[in-house]
Specification:
The chain is globular, with a radius of gyration of 32 Å. The chain contains 16 helices and 45 strands. The chain has about 850 residues and is α+β, with helices and mostly antiparallel strands. A ten-stranded antiparallel beta sheet has the order 7-8-12-13-24-19-18-15-16-37, with helices on one face. An eight-stranded parallel beta sheet has the order 38-36-35-34-29-28-25-39, covered by helices on one side. Helix 10 (about 505-520) packs parallel to helix 11, helix 12 (about 630-640) packs parallel to helix 13 and helix 15 runs parallel beside helix 16.
Length: about 850
């Protein structure tokens, strides 16, 4: 009886522990209302419920799944101070042990044979470490994987050398010995080259009985059923004795049109290396071999590394926009599996349709938290052709997984017409991506196993590998301001249209705006000036610099620079290098990228109403990466003469395009290398760089990032949007999202709360002229950019934000977590804690109430 009472008491205690004061709050849509700054002491970290406390009582009492014990088939292959790598030499699957935590991570699920969901090929695929998709010579989409097409037939070699483990797979059906014997041999050649060279009658009979004479065609046909076992060995031995070699075989096969591509073989090396605390997994591009008639499309690497089952708790981290989480076993089988390409779309590929608005993935990372452990993967090589994919249990198998895949080759479909007939054929790029693919896995113990821990790991990685340096001292909160100089405008003379230049903000007018901002208490202004040279915002291609005279010319710009320096303002004139604009001059067609079809690559504005490019609008050419070095030379030469120490780059940090010119193919990875070289040159020539977007390869060269991702795409498969991007960079770079007055939702309260949650700065886009100046210009989107409508609100927002964030500008974000629906807490390294409540209703957390659409600041403020 006492035992039963004890059990009941424990259950009641567990049930009570699961009841939280905010557990049933529903997240509501934000409303436009002003937020009143509210600061109060926040309870200690221990008083705030942890993620574990929020779980249901049923989850609390269930057994925690453990890592499977190391199989007897796994043998130690590599070892260092931090990690041990094990290999199953029969299946080539690997396991890595993190010595600090003792956790084991497997390349493939260890209980996959018991998977009740996966069937057929999906079940076999659970054994895979690498997979290729390709088109064969007949246009059929096929796939090869290392298990089905290599391991099962023993077509692989293993080499352990020093600190690396190398496995070379031969993918495809290796030709049997019978393929060394032609299907048909002419009567003349059969009698002279084969029978005529055999001395023994018994040998002649041995050969003759295995071929059938085809009298009408005067040839001998191979009897396939007789070429088995001993019979096959005898014939191949006799052919070898008489010198019937590969050259003679090729002659007879060619005579009767035998195809040689039936068994397309691919040599695919996979290398594992322990480098300190990192496990590096690589595919060296220079060692990949494949037939010329094979059009490889994509490669998936370790698709089931760390895959978790239905009893595991945790999530996958994907780099969607600012970052998002996919909770394990979320039952969203109605949703499309997650897949996004790094750095957005390639403008050199035809993309007339856009199914949905998608936030660009800026950081080449992904990760997973499983119970009290986790891993973070950084795509080190091949990032520009990479995508991150993820799915949840229940669709194809019983596992949750996240991995990287790579577009090695692309294609375009071309429609051919002949009168009333038409057909579509595939045209492939000239050769596949030749570079290396490398992913570095790092492992997180119990204290680090969260997306906050993953952000810290990636920050450490960037510090070590890119030299990313912390902001110096106690920086002020920046105020990012974009002023628009001039725009193109169609005007009429005697009814005849002509293109004209419409100034919106001259350099003198910019000083007026800046003076008013300072009078209203706005400090640390970072001024981005667009539309200042070569014909305005849609400027001519910048192989040289000519400051627009209607704004004040070069003298006016230099006077604005002097004014800005006196007032502690940094000026960043803006330029675009990766595309031209309608009616812009300076780029020859030979300098534009080519599509796979050979046509010039150009894009059109998207029509939001039908999610397609509007081909009725003027197009813009995509600039080939190969011309960038020469253009940057000319630009920097003229720019240096202006004496401006800042520069804003509109697209070098946000876009990345190929050039599929068959004579000089430049894939995205090579294009990234070219762009990085130009960024390095610019950062050496101009002391301060600002970039838009913030692709990972551009961030090391910049001090400021605008239009940084502030949210995820909100895909159905994902569960939470997180500020992973901001958690990585805060304290090292300063950043802002989309201009607050240009956002889809111009809710001032929402913008302020989001900035407080993410440690972001305010950003506005303004001009000085009367708004009527943009009528009939194609710049209708700028109607909300009249500075007079926003300056007072902007000053109030800046002051409220600065009071909270000024003291933490040079600090990293130690932790970010969701406390309840619509309630988030951000903790900085020195202890400052900010809780924001996006709900309309008040929420109580740890005994402290945060009003609706408001925030509270606590902890140690420095």
């Amino acid at each position: 009886m006492k035992k039963k009472l004890t059990i009941i008491a424990i259950v009641l205690m567990l049930s009570g522990a699961a009841v939280l004061p905010y557990a049933d709050l529903a997240e509501s849509a934000p409303e436009a209302e002003s937020a009143v700054q509210s600061e109060a002491a926040i309870p200690s970290e221990a008083a705030i419920p942890s993620e574990a406390a929020i779980q249901s009582s049923a989850q609390s009492v269930q057994d925690t799944p453990k890592s499977p014990e190391l199989s007897a088939d796994m043998k130690e292959a590599l070892d260092n101070e931090y990690l041990t790598l094990y290999l199953n030499q029969m299946t080539t699957e690997i396991a890595v042990k993190d010595k600090k935590s003792g956790a084991l991570w497997y390349s493939n699920p260890q209980d996959r044979e018991q998977d009740a969901v996966a069937t057929g090929y999906n079940k076999s695929k659970l054994n895979v470490q690498v997979e290729l998709t390709y088109y064969d010579s007949k246009g059929n989409l096929m796939n090869y994987d290392n298990y089905t097409h290599s391991v099962q037939s023993g077509q692989f070699t293993i080499e352990e050398s020093g600190d690396s483990l190398n496995i070379v797979y031969t993918l495809g059906e290796v030709k049997s010995n019978i393929d060394g014997i032609p299907k048909y041999i002419s009567e003349e050649r059969f009698r002279t080259l084969i029978i005529g060279r055999l001395e023994k009658d018994s040998d002649k009979k041995e050969i003759e009985k295995r071929f059938r004479y085809d009298e009408p065609n005067k040839r001998y046909e191979r009897r396939d059923t007789s070429f088995k076992g001993v019979g096959l060995k005898k014939v191949t031995s006799l052919f070898g004795q008489i010198g019937y070699d590969e050259a003679q075989i090729a002659i007879d096969k060619a005579a009767y049109g035998e195809e040689e591509d039936g068994a397309a073989l691919v040599t695919l090396p996979l290398e594992y290396r322990l480098d300190g605390k990192l496990l590096r997994v690589s595919i060296p591009g220079d060692k990949v071999r494949y037939p010329d008639n094979m059009h490889i499309q994509s490669l998936s690497l370790l698709p089931f590394f760390g895959a978790s089952g239905t009893k595991d708790e945790g999530y996958s981290l994907v780099p969607d926009g600012s970052g998002s989480l996919i909770h394990f076993n979320n039952n969203k089988l109605y949703a499309t599996p997650y897949r996004t390409a790094m750095y957005g779309p390639d403008a050199a590929l035809t993309q007339l349709g856009q199914v949905q608005k998608e936030e660009t993935s800026r950081l080449p990372v992904f990760g997973m938290k499983v119970q009290d452990r986790g891993f973070l993967a950084v795509i080190e090589s091949g990032d520009a052709v990479a995508a991150v994919e993820a799915d949840v249990s229940g669709r194809l198998n019983q596992y949750n997984y996240v991995f990287s895949s790579y577009t090695l080759g692309s294609l375009e479909e071309v429609t051919l017409t002949n009168g009333w007939r038409s057909s579509t054929v595939k045209q492939f790029q000239a050769g596949i991506f030749p570079g290396d693919i490398t992913v570095a896995y790092s492992f997180l113990d119990q204290e680090e196993a969260s997306y906050s821990g993953m952000a810290a790991k990636y920050r450490e990685y960037l510090i070590e590998h890119t030299g990313m340096a912390r902001l110096e001292g106690a920086e002020d909160v920046p105020f990012y301001l974009e002023l628009i100089g001039g725009i193109p405008k169609k005007k009429f003379f005697l009814g005849i249209p002509y293109s004209a230049y419409e100034p919106l903000t001259s350099f003198k007018e910019a000083e007026v705006i800046l003076e008013q901002m300072q009078e209203k208490g706005i400090g640390d202004i970072q001024l981005r000036y667009t539309g200042w040279f070569n014909g305005g915002i849609n400027h001519n291609y910048p192989k040289g610099v000519s400051v627009d005279s209607k704004l004040g010319g070069a003298k006016g710009l230099q006077e604005l620079q002097s004014y800005a320096q006196d007032k502690g303002i940094t000026l960043y004139p803006d330029a675009s290098f990766l595309q031209t604009f309608p009616e812009a001059k300076g780029l020859r067609k030979s300098q534009a990228s080519r599509l796979i079809t050979g046509k010039l690559a150009h894009t059109y504005p998207y029509d939001i109403s039908d999610l397609k490019q509007d081909v009725k609008q003027p197009s813009v050419y995509v600039v080939s990466p190969r011309v960038l070095p020469g253009v940057v030379d000319g630009f920097l030469g003229d720019y240096a003469a202006l004496g401006v120490d800042g520069l804003s780059l509109r697209d070098l940090g946000s876009g990345l395009n190929s050039d599929f010119n068959a004579e000089n193919l430049i894939d995205r990875q090579r294009a990234e290398g070219i762009v990085k070289e130009q960024l390095e040159r610019m950062s050496s020539s101009v002391p301060r760089l600002m970039v838009e977007g913030g692709n990972a390869y551009a961030a090391p060269f910049a001090r400021h990032i605008v239009v940084a991702p502030m949210q995820s795409s909100g895909f159905n498969i994902t569960d939470e949007s997180i500020p992973f991007f901001q958690m990585v960079y805060h304290g090292y770079l300063q950043y802002a999202g989309t201009a607050w007055n240009m956002a889809d939702d111009q809710d001032a309260t929402l913008s302020l709360l989001k900035a407080l949650e993410t440690g972001s700065a305010p950003y506005y886009t303004w001009f000085y002229a009367d708004p009527s100046a943009i009528k009939m210009t194609g710049f209708d989107r700028l109607y909300s950019a009249d500075y007079r409508s926003w300056i007072d609100q902007a000053a109030g927002q800046y002051q409220a934000l600065s009071r909270v964030l000024k003291s933490v500008q040079s600090q990293t974000i130690k932790e970010h977590k969701k406390l309840a629906a619509g309630v988030y807490q951000t903790t900085y390294e020195a202890g400052t804690t900010i809780i924001v409540n996006y709900n309309h209703a008040p929420v109580t957390v740890g005994g402290v109430t945060i009003d609706g659409r408001n925030y509270r600041v606590g902890g140690e403020q420095q």
